């Protein structure tokens, strides 16, 4: 979270710095003023937006790294290989030789936990149950990992509404001051030009927040779908390479009979 927040600050600073030269260009001056001349709310919206994008970017990088584990074969490809309590050490040794720490990989962590249970207890029938339990645990962890993102996506439109309230209060307060100080219609007309700045703040901050929240929500949806597909691929990998290789040994048949 600290790294993503730091990236959000850097992104906000770079975005604001990029807007400064645009204030001198006729075609883009209005766009730059939407962020630079509307108080502090647009800057807060930018920070939360870039923070959210940084979290999504880091999650996508981690997902790409986790997907690489699906291409690794840690169970011997020999069709005659039988996975049992007697051969489980061969698979565990392959895993530890392939990666530095299986706990850093969702797929290998599942397999190590299940096979460690098989090695310690010697019951093949428990491996499938353990893999299913780990799959449910990974689903829960995935869902919990989006809690902060959902909070940020909720907070961005709220900030837009806060900017709307501030802009409307500024506009209404300015209009009341114009009516008290102006004597004729021409003075009122000239003074109202300053009041429109509050209305611009009111509507533009809402627009910024809604557009930012929409983009982040779309990115979040596609990334979550990709992560769910990865977890499904992990389930399929475990069934194909672990569960389908399990064999109940003779002494286990005697215990279960």
Q: How much of the polypeptide forms β-strand, as a percent range?
A: under 5%
* Termini separation: 53 Å
Structural class: mainly alpha
Q: What radius of gyration results from the CA coordinates?
A: 29 Å
What is the average per-residue confidence, as pLDDT, rounded to a whole number?
83
**Number of separate helices:** 9
Biggest sheet record: none
Can you count the beta strands? 0
List the secondary-structure elements in sequence, H or E.
HHHHHHHHH
Contiguous low-pLDDT stretches (5 residues minimum) are 250-257
The best one-word shape is elongated
Helical proportion, percent range = over 70%
Summarize the model shown.
With 257 residues, the chain is mainly alpha-helical.
Report on this structure:
By secondary structure, this protein is mostly helical. Helices cover 79% and strands 0% of the residues. It has nine helices and no strands. α6 packs antiparallel against α8 (185-241). The longest helix has 57 residues, at 185-241. It is elongated, with a radius of gyration of 29 Å. Residues 250-257 have low confidence and may be disordered.
Task: Quickly list its features.
single chain; 257 residues; mainly alpha; elongated; disordered C terminus
Topology:
Blueprint (H helix, E strand, L loop, with lengths): L1 H21 L6 H8 L4 H27 L20 H11 L7 H16 L3 H21 L1 H35 L3 H57 L8 H7 L1
Helix pairs in contact: 1-2, 1-3, 3-7, 3-8, 4-5, 5-6, 5-8, 6-8, 7-8
